[in-house]
């Protein structure tokens, strides 16, 4: 095995030892459905898909995903949405957000809902940006953060080559 396989095996074993709930705001995408299937098949994580229940159930059936191993959060019927909208209002009211805008954001913008799910520890992580520009996918996570010690953000990219690993940091979002 090459060095890249050793690194990947370590990451896979760590993920398998403690599967995390990973949210996918672009749940209605076939690309995300295929990723969720692979994640479930490898027992790496518990996918949490955001989107319309009917569309997501069709994708789950089409991709032969075990429905018991994936969670669907439909913004139209999410029982926690009103409570999260109140939290969002409290966090962003100085920015001029109104109560009805907070509800609208969470119902219509999956990245905002994913950020609130992360903020409330309903999910352990989020994978986003497959169908959005980088700033549009990242902005809600910067806006929805109640922890003052976590105000500086950096993205890190891990590139695994045959005989070495490189890390690239992106600190331009601050």
Describe the main β-sheet briefly.
4 strands, parallel
Strand order of the largest sheet: 3-2-1-4
Chain-averaged pLDDT: 91
Main structural class = alpha/beta
Write down the overall geometry.
globular
Beta-sheet strand percentage? 15-25%
Rg, Å, rounded: 17 Å
Query: What is the string of SSEs from the N terminus onward?
Result: HEHEHEHHHEHEE
Per DSSP E runs of 2 or more residues, the count of β-strands stands at 6
Q: Given the structure, what is the number of helices?
A: 7
State the helicity in percent bands: 40-55%
Sequence stretches where pLDDT stays below 50 over 5 or more residues: none
Distance from N terminus to C terminus (CA atoms, Å) equals 39 Å
Key features?
174 residues, alpha/beta, four-stranded parallel sheet, two-stranded antiparallel sheet
Summarize the structure in short:
The chain has seven helices and six strands; from the N terminus they run αβαβαβαααβαββ. The protein has 174 residues and is of the alpha/beta class.
Structural features, described:
With 174 residues, the protein is of the alpha/beta class. It has 7 helices and 6 strands; from the N terminus they run αβαβαβαααβαββ. The strands form 2 sheets. The chain has a 4-stranded parallel sheet with strand order 3-2-1-4, with helices on both faces. A hairpin with a 4-residue loop joins strand 5 (155-160) and strand 6. Helix 4 crosses helix 5. The longest helix is centred in the first third of the chain and has 15 residues, at 3-17. The mean pLDDT is 91.
Outline the fold blueprint.
Elements: H1 3-17, E1 20-24, H2 30-41, E2 45-50, H3 53-62, E3 71-73, H4 81-92, H5 99-108, H6 110-119, E4 125-126, H7 134-143, E5 155-160, E6 165-170
Parallel strand pairs: 1-2, 1-4, 2-3
Antiparallel strand pairs: 5-6
Helix pairs in contact: 4-5, 5-6, 6-7
